[in-house]
Amino acid sequence: MLDRKFLRENRELVTRAVAMKNESVDIAAYYDKDAERRAALQEVETLQAEANKANKAISDAKKAGEDAAAAIASMKEVSGRIKELKAVADGLEAEVEELYLRIPNIPHESVPAGGEENNQLVRTWAEPVQKDFSVVPHWDIGEALGIFDPEAAVRMSGSGFTVLKGDGARLERALINWFLDVHRDQGYTEVNIPYLVGRQAMTGTGQLPKLEEDMYLCQVDDLFLIPTAEVPVTNLHMGRTLDGDQLPVKYCAFSPCFRREAGAAGKDTRGLLRVHQFHKVEMVCVTRPEDSEDELERMTNCAEEILRRLELPYRVMLLSSGDMGFAARKTYDLEVWLPSQNTYREISSCSNCGDFQARRMNARFRREGEKKPEFLHTLNGSGVAVGRAMLAVMENHQNEDGSITIPDVLRPYMGGLEVLSA
Hints:
CATH class of the largest domain: Alpha Beta
Strand order of the largest sheet: 1-9-10-11-14-8-7-2
Largest sheet: 8 strands, mixed
Order of helices and strands: HHHHEHHHEEHEEHEEEHEEEHEEEHEE
Number of helices: 12
Mean pLDDT: 95
Radius of gyration: 27 Å
CATH architecture of the largest domain: 2-Layer Sandwich
């Protein structure tokens, strides 16, 4: 969230940011209701001063043996008005808070304005290999190799799920373990986190209230299945104040991710591109404000290293304001080449959220010699989406006979297996 004083003093900037991010929050209503709330509280202060005077008049009258009826009547009238105004202010505060939590982060000055068509190409790595045969889509080659069983998943759970078998399950596990080992070497501390979290944690990282309909809720306990490990990992510092000398702190975590994606029906329904349950290794960093832009570049390179070592052609895109996430102030998307689609598709997003999430979580740090704590800056990035990495390997390293060559870095995790074949 943004500081309320900042919101009051920068209405034009905030209104423009809401428009740039294509958010639906009624920002004018926020300002109107907040002004009403503050006016009511200001009147309460004024009336409280009158009440104090009336109290003194009553006390003085009683001490002097005089009739205090008029002062008492005045006191009752003022007290009643104060009670009314406080109720009005409380009601307005609830409305203001609901709108407040829906105001997005402000894009960094380097972020291009516009929608997806305005995303900027930053760099590419490796030219896509033009094969002498038609690459079979991963869902078909997976079934042909006997490592995918989509029909079993549909029977159990419906559409949007998949079953991996044999070397398919083994390949996914190899990717997960290798990702975590690489990130450990990059300086990340691995954490094992809960897969169910409460509303406070989901609100802290910005999933609630905006994205509640896309989440899976366990209604009995009012706990949400996590949509990404970003939520519990970032919330490790909820309500805490860190020593500034500890920063930056970097974490990585493997987790299943659960998303209803209610608005995505009918899109990418085959294979591993868009499913309701998928696996991901997430990177999270908390740091000082002055270091967060450098940390974003470093984190993005950490994700790129994964793709380079898997020998997967990719490109890095700087997202425009309208294509970024709610909590992000700047985001790089990594897009991997998929031969069967003859295009690049997102496989990782690395975002700097500034102090937006930290304010919602009350996560702070204190500089050496300073008494007043400051809000942390938080960053997160996919390191990377495991299913999408798997399908990219299956297509980019596919052979004409329908087999798949295992990248060198994964072979120790596959018991030395070099090729997946039927």
